[in-house]
Design brief:
single chain, alpha+beta, 3 domains, four-stranded antiparallel β-sheet, PHR, PHR_sf, cytoplasm
Length: 523
């Protein structure tokens, strides 16, 4: 019996030959009957047969990628490999070398060579709208393995044997990004093509690429693109992305409404934003944003941007703007003089402000709820002394990190310990030395140990698991209270906040004591 391992190689410690006694005896009798047989031939009889037994080892099978880790080829082949990689970036290039397969040790790398390559291509795609098309080669087997839509297209019951397929609704760059994932198992996304790539991944049912696109969008989400992404997330039926967009729009509503992307949304998304109860913005900002959208919509519909046409494209969405909740000055100097309201509507709203018997309005007259700010207090007690806490233009600073995305709206600061006093405060929020938000304002303290809020102009988005630096430079003649028994970690609702000392602090503030007792945020 010859015992071998799974690969067909002898296992030296277990390899042996077994000759059955009965077989030897029978063979010996037969050989003795033959007169021409020598004694030496009967003494060296080979086994009748060999039986090969496969031993199952406990070691896990290794794939080619495990055996041959990705590394640079030998110097002799480096130029050729680089040449083939460059060919993949261009269209309709074939590989001239007869033994190109030998340059790549794994099936993954050899498969990647076929990406955007005419070699052995059995189908071509004409991708893009008329006038901006690009012809891309494909290989049916590879595409069918990567997408159920391609499998049905090429091998399904209703498969059509076409050499060229036109795809006018997908951008060439997005289609190439999807092909690169299917061929190379690589995800290559860019901010200007990720939405188009998501569309392609959804259309051809490539779920892992679609998930990567959504993750990319969530990571790059900001007030500037939140409205556009909200519109797209509803189109692509991505509820998680939709929720993240609403979080940004609610907390940074004024920035989102003033962004260029707001004017690019569809009418349905416009209505949903105008209906939003938790929109954290002044109503005059909502009104102006709606008029800006209407002007761009007139251009999309090839209409002259007159007052009448703006009102026409807004339609019933105009009454979702809560004009009666504006400050009277905002209405009188803004909405009332915009021309978008009829004379009767303007008169009725003025009466709504001033008359005891208020007229009925088509506009929503109930103020939005907005967002309720949360406060993270990091000290367990506060105190004051005859020589502390003094301000001479020096910086009080602390670093913090959160475990969930939040929006810092401002800081809570201590006030005077010697009676009423006014302070000038310059607040600042930085990440790795880059200023994300700052504001210069004044606040009045009443001599109590309470904290007094100082706000940024707009809430600042804070990403999880990254330390940010909160700083304030106070200017005031009076001494103030200061915090004691500081905590390194504070649980505030569903958000955990960690604190550590900052090298920017030159006035004594640290984790254990000092100023900036509160972070005010939306979550």
């Amino acid at each position: 019996i010859l015992m071998v391992d799974e690969k067909g190689k002898n296992m030296k410690c277990l390899t042996f030959f077994l000759m059955l006694p009965e077989t030897v005896k029978n063979r010996s009798k037969k050989s003795s009957k033959k007169g021409n047989s020598s004694s030496s031939s009967s003494s060296k009889l080979p086994p009748v047969c060999y039986e090969i037994i496969t031993l199952k080892t406990k070691k896990k099978k290794k794939m080619a990628a495990d055996i041959f880790p990705r590394k640079k080829p030998a110097n002799t082949n480096t130029a050729a490999v680089q040449q083939y990689h460059q060919q993949n970036l261009n269209n309709n290039n074939t590989i001239p070398a007869p033994n190109w397969q030998g340059l790549y040790p794994t099936i993954r790398e050899r498969n990647a060579v076929m990406f955007n390559n005419d070699l052995m291509a059995d189908v071509h795609f004409v991708v893009g709208p008329p006038g901006a098309t690009q012809r891309l080669p494909g290989h049916k087997y590879v595409l069918a393995v990567g997408s159920s839509v391609f499998h049905a297209m090429f091998y399904g019951e209703l498969a059509e044997d076409k050499d060229e397929i036109r795809i006018p609704d997908v951008e060439p760059a997005a289609f190439l990004a999807m092909l690169k994932y299917i061929y190379c198992d690589e995800i290559d996304l860019a901010a200007d093509t990720v939405l188009a790539t998501l569309y392609a991944a959804k259309k051809y049912i490539v779920p892992h690429l679609a998930r990567a696109c959504v993750n990319f969008l969530e990571t790059s989400l900001s007030a500037k693109n939140a409205c556009v992404l909200l519109s797209q997330s509803c189109l692509f039926e991505e509820p998680d992305l939709t929720q993240r967009c609403w979080e940004v729009i609610d907390a940074q509503a004024e920035l989102a409404l003033k962004s260029e992307g707001f004017c690019d949304i569809d009418f349905q998304t416009l209505e949903s934003i105008l209906r939003r109860e938790t929109l954290n913005a002044k109503e005059i900002v909502v009104f102006e944003a709606a008029l800006n959208w209407a002007e761009v919509e007139c251009q999309r519909q090839e209409l002259t941007a007159t007052i009448e046409n703006k009102r026409k494209v807004l339609g019933k969405a105009l009454y979702l703007i809560r004009i009666p909740t504006m400050a009277l000055d905002d209405f009188a100097n803004g909405a009332a003089q915009s021309g978008i309201l009829t004379l009767n509507e303007t008169n009725d709203i003025f009466l709504w402000y001033t008359a005891a018997k208020k007229p009925e309005l088509q506009f929503v007259s109930k103020p939005r709820k907005g967002l309720v700010p949360q406060r993270c207090h990091r000290f367990q007690s506060c105190a004051y002394r005859s020589n502390q806490w003094r301000y001479r233009g020096r910086c009080d600073s602390i670093q913090f990190a959160v475990d969930k995305r939040v929006f810092i709206a401002g800081f809570g600061l201590y006030g005077s310990s010697c009676g009423s006093a006014e302070y000038s405060a310059k607040i600042e929020l930085k990440r790795q030395g880059v200023i994300l938000g700052q504001n210069l304002s004044k606040y009045f303290s009443d001599g109590s140990s309470n904290t007094f809020p100082v706000w940024f102009e707009y809430p600042v988005q804070i990403e999880p698991d990254t330390f940010y630096t909160a700083s304030v430079i106070l200017d005031g003649n009076e001494l103030s209270y200061f915090g004691q028994e500081g905590m390194t970690e504070v649980q505030c609702g569903k958000v955990t906040v960690q604190f550590q000392c900052s090298s920017d602090s030159t006035n004594g503030t640290g984790v254990q004591g000092g100023q900036i007792p509160e972070l005010i945020f939306y979550a």
